[in-house]
Amino acid sequence: MARLFMAINLGHLDVLDEVLNEPKVIQDLLSLRAFDEHPLHSACSISSIDVIKRLLRVSAVGLNAWPGSPQRHCLNDAARNHERPEVTSFLLESGAKWTPPNSVYCRPVLTAIEHGNPTAARILIDAGLPSNFDDIYWDIALKNLCNRVNRSSVDMSVIENLVDLIPLAHLLEASVKTGCIDIVEYLLKTQRDRISEVMSTIMSFVDYESSHSPALDIVKLLAAAGAPFCLLSDTRLSTPAHRAAARGDKALLEYVYDKPLKGMTPYRYYNDLLAVSGTPEILQHLLDIGFDVYTLDERGYPPLLQMLGDWSWELKDTSTFIGLLRILLDCGADPSFTAIDCSTAVTRCFWFDHYGESYARPLEIFELLFEHERRHS
């Protein structure tokens, strides 16, 4: 069987003919039951029609009765074969059938789009296969397509041939999430009418951890196209500045932190931004570029209270909490809140200790608070 798969993968027809004349190989082939072991799985994905024809001759009863049920998957395999879209036509002409599965991995039209195979996608649609999918399936497939563009395994000319088959709002979201700047630029320049529905929220899809291109470049493109920096809601982590602070992206943070905010008042924005500043270094950077630690929230409390009370549970270790607290106290934050918030601070200290830290760390927090009060009393 090893020689069989080698001949299929390399497209060596002479070797394939020789192997398929061996009775033991034929016996093993017809006894296969697992789909992922079946030679048609490999052949339809990567091989020419000539290879597939030779495999089909092995079964006297035809493609759809071959043991192991490869017929359910062969069209999906062929959809991946973007260098040979004619394989899809050949399989349909040979009687290949498709039945709906319960898996995202066996939807041939979606697979063809995901692998940059527009010709096969149109062939399958013309054959009556479904082309409407739930959002979750589009999300997975289009992110994979964008990553193939990022890796240069799919050319942008292919994207241009796919736009009539894809919900472009989903494609813009996927390209922003993956940092596929080529697709973002293409859609903003040529498809503005078809992506307008998501422009008001598109900034929230910027991913600062898995973006192929620098997140700052993506944000600048979207901003130039008129995308707002803030969602029309009070959802936390909804702006590029929030997420840049949380992810430690100083360049992006410096660019966006003071941009116009629609739908969010400054105190809420700055408090939330301070609260998700995941490291002392980022907080110090915020202060260095003019961050206002004195902005009051709706209760009249400064952002430091937000950090101690509402958000300290987000910090994963006491050292980070102490580092943030020390910077805030040193920059001259209003001391009047500390007595008010001591009960919250106590709760947080014991929460940290519950997860295995020494009591010395909570004591250090109290020492900072009380020393701050003494200096300002």
Structure description:
InterPro entries: Ankyrin_rpt (IPR002110), Ankyrin_rpt-contain_sf (IPR036770). Keywords: ANK repeat, Repeat. The protein is mainly alpha-helical and 377 residues long. It has 3 domains: 1-131, Serine Threonine Protein Phosphatase 5, Tetratricopeptide repeat, CATH 1.25.40.20; 133-227; 293-377. It has 24 helices and no strands. The radius of gyration is 29 Å and the shape is elongated.
Structural topology:
Elements: H1 2-10, H2 13-19, H3 23-30, H4 39-46, H5 49-56, H6 71-80, H7 86-93, H8 108-114, H9 118-126, H10 135-150, H11 156-162, H12 168-178, H13 181-190, H14 192-195, H15 215-224, H16 240-247, H17 250-256, H18 266-275, H19 280-288, H20 303-308, H21 318-330, H22 337-340, H23 342-354, H24 360-376
What are the main properties of this structure?
24 helices; 3 domains; 377 residues; Serine Threonine Protein Phosphatase 5, Tetratricopeptide repeat
How big a fraction of the residues is strand? under 5%
Task: Please give the number of β-strands.
Answer: 0
Inertia-based shape: elongated
**Structural class from helices and strands?**
mainly alpha
Biggest sheet details? none
Ranges where pLDDT stays below 50 over 5 or more residues in a row are 232-237, 309-313
Average pLDDT, to the nearest integer?
76
H/E element sequence: HHHHHHHHHHHHHHHHHHHHHHHH
CATH topology value of the largest domain: Serine Threonine Protein Phosphatase 5, Tetratricopeptide repeat
CATH architecture of the largest domain: Alpha Horseshoe
> Helix coverage percent of residues?
55-70%
Q: How many domains, in number, for the residues?
A: 3
C-alpha-based Rg, rounded: 29 Å
What is the CATH class of the largest domain? Mainly Alpha
Mind telling me the CATH superfamily name of the largest domain?
Answer: Ankyrin repeat-containing domain
Figure out the total of helices.
Answer: 24
Q: What's the end-to-end separation, in Å?
A: 84 Å
